[in-house]
Design goal:
This protein has 224 residues and is α/β, with parallel strands linked by helices. It is built from eight helices and six strands, in the order βαβαβαβαβαβααα. The protein has one domain: 3-Layer(aba) Sandwich (Rossmann fold). The chain is globular.
């Protein structure tokens, strides 16, 4: 029963999009609880539109004093728990990381985002010491060009890997379909070509991302 957190020290990095794509895909095979701990509640708003998977429960309105209760309650009800955290590093984020089987840190392919991601990695390391447990994490590049990876992105990725920072091999591309999920509702599976272009490419990209997350969870479980 893995608990997966999405954390970032800044907003606008595609954190909620990555969480919804993963939760929606996992809900096709199992029950999932998606906890929206972002003060802006983007996932709660998405969940009120038509098309949310029946196997996907969305919990919002959590605060610092209720987050752990919400996670524990969800862990007792569904095999997968996903937590979308606010774009900062604070006690609420610390509490969620203490329960994480995998922390995913989204970032765009910019130097500023890489610096902020490294701050979050340092924060995770501090929480490992505080809670006396390993907190596995992976960085996830988001909003990348679908066709050509820029020199800047390649250089940032190489620098992070050189520092021993684990990164998902699949990046979430910049896709209209991902924005359409939040604007129209539902999932990539319920959208139609009449509503958005490039849908099949978006589905393929998302499937590869989800498959890599699942492989990471299995590898971590085997190692444990």
């Amino acid at each position: 029963m893995p608990t997966i957190t999405f954390a970032s020290s800044k907003g606008g990095c595609g954190k909620s999009t990555a969480a919804v794509l993963l939760a929606s895909a996992l809900a096709e095979r199992s029950a999932v609880t998606l906890i929206d701990a972002d003060p802006n509640q983007p996932i709660v708003r998405w969940s009120k539109r038509p098309g949310r998977p029946k196997n996907l429960a969305v919990v919002g309105g959590v605060a610092q004093d209720t987050l752990l209760d919400a996670i524990e309650d969800a862990e007792g009800k569904t095999p997968f728990v996903i937590v979308d955290l606010e774009g900062t590093a604070n006690l609420l984020v610390s509490q969620a990381l203490s329960r994480a089987d995998l922390a995913i840190v989204p970032l765009k392919g910019s130097t500023l985002d890489a610096i902020e991601a490294l701050k979050l990695v340092k924060f995770i390391t501090q929480q490992e010491r505080a809670y006396r447990r390993d907190i596995p994490y992976r960085l996830l590049f988001t909003q990348t060009p679908p066709a050509i990876r820029s020199r800047t992105l390649k250089a940032i990725e190489a620098d992070l890997l050189g520092q021993g920072i684990p990164i998902f091999g699949t990046a979430l591309n910049e896709r209209d379909a991902y924005r359409a999920v939040f604007a129209i509702g539902g999932t990539l599976g319920t959208l139609s070509l009449d509503e958005v272009g490039g849908l099949e490419a978006a589905r393929t990209n998302a499937d590869r991302y989800v498959a890599e997350v699942v492989r990471a969870l299995k590898a971590l479980r085997s190692a444990a």
